Amino acid sequence: MKFDLTSILAHGYDYAKGLQFVVTGSEVGMLHNFLRLDEPKSPLYGRATVEIELSGLNEEQSKEFLEKGFAQIRLKVPDEMLESVHLRFDGIIGWLTYCGLKAMEKKKLDKKIIDEAAEKATRLVALELKNFLRLYKSNRYSVVMRNLAKGSTTWADLKRALESREGVTIGQSEITKLLSNLEDAGFVAKGNDGTYFIADPMVIEELELEQEAFN
Q1: Is pTM, for the whole model, over 0.85?
Q2: In a 3-state reduction of DSSP, which class is residue 197?
Q3: Torsion 117-191-136-163 (CA) sign
Q4: Residue 66 to residue 83: CA distance in whole angstroms
């Protein structure tokens, strides 16, 4: 059964004074598709909204974020461990928070805990990828993801990789659709130079693990 909560949100927006809704998620495109703010037929069309996008943190910001979190639980962590967390999770706030939670549970932070947090993160990513592939039912998404796991690349290179694998010509709209769906799901991002890449290091780790198992 399909549920549409936009009417409920619109009703609360119009009639519940002082009530605010916060809709969050890592899959930005999915959120936009869910809210349909730009569609005239959507119950939320024309409502005032504020969008806050949380990008990855640089090393200095990651350390500050972790230090403030650990200070709240009175846990002293060596500077080199904070740097290791940043490098492993590339400053992605969700994974930094998850690693911090594991450190809080163990009352310390060391390489073993970072590795354990990364292992569980890749399991979660694997489940998300599995659900995505089950939804779209096309091996082409796996091909695109495996190519991007090797490094950022262009739209044209991805098109050539798919065509080389299948031995057929694939329409431009199909390639664009594949990448758009992957972007909406948060698996792929597009750089300012027009190349595509996987922004989440945990996704790359999972794809590398899958490749090792396949070999």
Answers
A1: no
A2: strand
A3: negative
A4: 10
